Please model this.
Amino acid sequence: MTTKSIGSEPIANNGVDFVRKAIRAISAYTLEPRIAPDKLDQNEGALDFPDALKREVVTRIMRRRWNVYPDFEAVELRDAIARRGGIARENVLVGNGSNELLMVAMATLVAPGRRVVVPTPTFPLYEKLATIFGGEVVPVDVDPHSGALPVEAMIGAASGPDPALVVACSPNNPTGGVLSLGDLDALLGSGAFVLLDRAYGEFWDDGSPRPVDRLVTLSTFSKAWGLASLRIGWLESTPELCSEMRKVKLPYNLNVFSLEAALVAIENEALMRARVADTIRERAKVAAALAALPGVEVFPTQSNFVAFRVEGSADALFEQLIARGTLVRNISRYLRLERCLRVSIGEPAENDRFLASIAALLGAESAVQSKGEGA
Ligand code: PMP
Model:
């Protein structure tokens, strides 16, 4: 019996050399696990889903047969989402977090060599996924002071003989700036193809853009809706683009638990709206108190987080805040965000504890106390 050889040489480096070059060249999206009593690092909703609604989800789950796949088309949830936006089921796809749908959109739209315009700094997954699918990432600078998305520069970077994909995160994570409906129209009017990430869209009035040609929007139940643990997101676009992306999406990607929870959340949308209003009030308090601290520069924000720059070491301040009980996000390694941290808006008491700690650490206790009162 002869042994067939697969290739002339064994694959070197424990098989790692078999991995696509584009993958070997990038690093993984990581988050160093740190723990503190007040968790203000991931922009989740400040409050848990209420017990009564959790029970309602469980009751509905108990009526389901767990040995049977969920609805192939996730019709009920897509209809509920479509009704909110006055659009059709065919305009909507649902996924296991908006991250999954970001991957689906990128896999569908990013061809090798295609330019992908990414305002920077922003959510790191755009660049990573665009690179994985062979795109050529073209970064454009977010205005470091206004934090606004640089629409003119985005249009400039997208223009050229071949169509480009423009990614816009509005409000932008981690800086908090936005793209107005007028700016979005200008971008689309320039001929660009736009992938708009509305993960934080509920925290400002973004005008709920309608599904039009060359626009794909991503939304999530992880932030304003307070369901981050259940991993539910949705995508809106034209029926034509949705059918193309449906070819890429895995079947049965949402489990029944998540499907039911999203339906219960939508049936109780007033709760989400009330919580968003509270967050916006707290955001004003936190941003004003931070801005009053010595040497602190606050990025204008329309989201449920505030990014800020300090004069000293962000790394040291990050550790000192943990030691005092608050975990924030250290974003000082992001391009152009040297000495910056980002704090999510939590419950009022958490925000107050954070403000008291940072004031004490930056030597400005009295400033925050007087700013914080009644703000
Ligand atoms: N987009 C942005 C801008 C985000 O910040 C996040 C979460 N950090 C996501 C998408 C992912 O959200 P999901 O939980 O829906 O996957």
